[in-house]
Design goal:
11-stranded mixed β-sheet, globular, alpha/beta, single chain, 7 helices, about 25% helix, Rossmann fold
Length: about 290
C-alpha cells in the first residue's frame, strides 16, 4: 500500500463566521498567522482539538466582518489551510432560499453550484502553468453526508442537496434576477461559495458547504432581503451550527480513508515541465507540489 492509499488522521478545516470557533470547546486552541504567496488571508487561523480531531478555523470575512464577499482573498484562504495540513474543508455560510421548502432557519447541504461571480481570482493556475480539474461534482459526498447526519442528530431541519447560485454582491438580487435563478434550477443563493469550491478542488481538498437559510431572497411578491431579519435568523443558528460541528467531530471514523479528491490533480496539469513558469510553480508548492515534483 502506498502512502497515498493509507488511512491517515483527519484534519478538518472550517471557513465560516468570525465567532464560529468560540464556544466550541476547542482543546489546546491557539491562533496562528500563516503566510501565503497569494497575498493576505482573511485572518489568522485558530486551531485546536475537538473530540480527538484537529480542527482549524478561518473567518471568511475577517475579524468583525470587515471584508466584503468580492474582496475576500479566496486563494490565500485555501492556500493557508492547505499549508496547515487540512485534509478536508467545511464551509458554513448564510444563504437565501429560492424555493418554498427551504425555509428560514433550515440548513442545506449544497451539492451543486451556478457561478455568477465576476472579477474574482478563481484559479491557482494561469499563464506558465496551466491545469484543468474536473468540477462536475464540486462537493465531497462523504463530507456532505457527515454534515447532514450531524445536523439531523442535533434535530436541525436539514436538506440533503441543493443548487447554490453564487452572485457577486454586495447587493442582494433584484426581484427579476431572483425569479430567473429559480427558473435556472437554483435552490439557494449566496455570495461566497464560488470561487471557494473551485479552489478547494484545485488544492485537492474535499469540500462541503452547509448553508444556513436566512430569508426567501426576493422572488416572492412582498418579500425582499432584509439585513436586520437575516442577522436575527443567523444569531439563532450560530449555536446550532456549533453543535453540528461538534457532532461531526464525534462521529468521524477513527482514521480517514483516502478520497478520490485527494488526487484531483493527477491528470490536470497540461504544461510540460520544461515550459513551466518557475515563479508560479514555487507559489503552488502547498497546493500542487504533489504533482509538480
Amino acid at each position: 500500500m502506498s502512502d497515498d492509499e493509507a488511512p491517515r488522521a483527519w484534519h478538518i478545516g472550517v471557513i465560516g463566521g468570525s465567532g464560529l470557533a468560540e464556544g466550541l470547546g476547542l482543546e489546546a486552541a491557539q491562533q496562528i498567522e500563516v503566510a501565503s504567496p497569494f497575498g493576505l488571508p482573511s485572518a489568522a487561523v485558530t486551531t485546536g482539538m475537538l473530540a480527538g480531531v484537529r480542527f482549524t478555523f478561518l473567518p471568511r470575512h475577517g475579524p468583525g466582518h470587515a471584508i466584503p464577499p468580492s474582496a475576500v482573498n479566496y486563494r490565500a484562504n485555501i492556500d493557508v489551510l492547505k499549508r496547515c495540513g487540512v485534509t478536508d474543508l467545511i464551509a458554513l455560510s448564510a444563504i437565501g432560499s429560492l424555493t418554498p421548502a427551504m425555509a428560514p432557519g433550515h440548513f442545506v447541504a449544497v451539492d451543486q453550484f451556478i457561478d455568477r461571480t465576476s472579477g474574482r481570482e478563481n484559479s491557482f493556475f494561469g499563464p506558465g502553468l496551466v491545469a484543468h480539474v474536473s468540477l462536475a461534482d464540486p462537493v465531497c459526498p462523504r463530507l456532505s453526508n457527515g454534515l447532514v447526519e450531524a445536523a439531523k442528530a442535533e434535530e436541525a431541519k436539514v436538506h440533503h442537496g441543493g443548487c447554490y447560485v453564487a452572485i457577486e454582491g454586495p447587493q442582494f438580487s433584484t426581484r427579476a434576477e431572483s425569479r430567473m435563478y429559480r427558473k435556472w434550477g437554483g435552490d439557494v443563493i449566496g455570495m461566497t461559495g464560488m470561487p471557494e469550491a473551485r479552489l478547494a478542488r484545485e488544492a485537492e481538498l474535499p469540500y462541503a458547504l452547509l448553508g444556513m437559510v436566512t430569508d426567501y431572497d426576493s422572488w416572492r411578491d412582498g418579500d425582499e432581503a432584509d439585513v436586520g431579519e437575516i442577522m436575527t435568523v443567523m444569531q439563532r443558528n450560530v449555536d446550532l451550527a456549533r453543535k453540528v460541528v461538534r457532532r461531526l467531530a464525534d462521529d468521524l471514523p477513527a482514521a480517514r480513508s483516502p478520497s478520490p479528491i485527494d488526487r484531483a490533480l493527477d491528470h490536470a496539469v497540461m504544461t510540460a515541465p520544461a515550459a513551466r513558469d518557475p515563479v508560479l510553480a514555487a507559489k503552488l508548492q502547498a497546493v500542487a507540489g504533489r504533482v509538480l515534483k
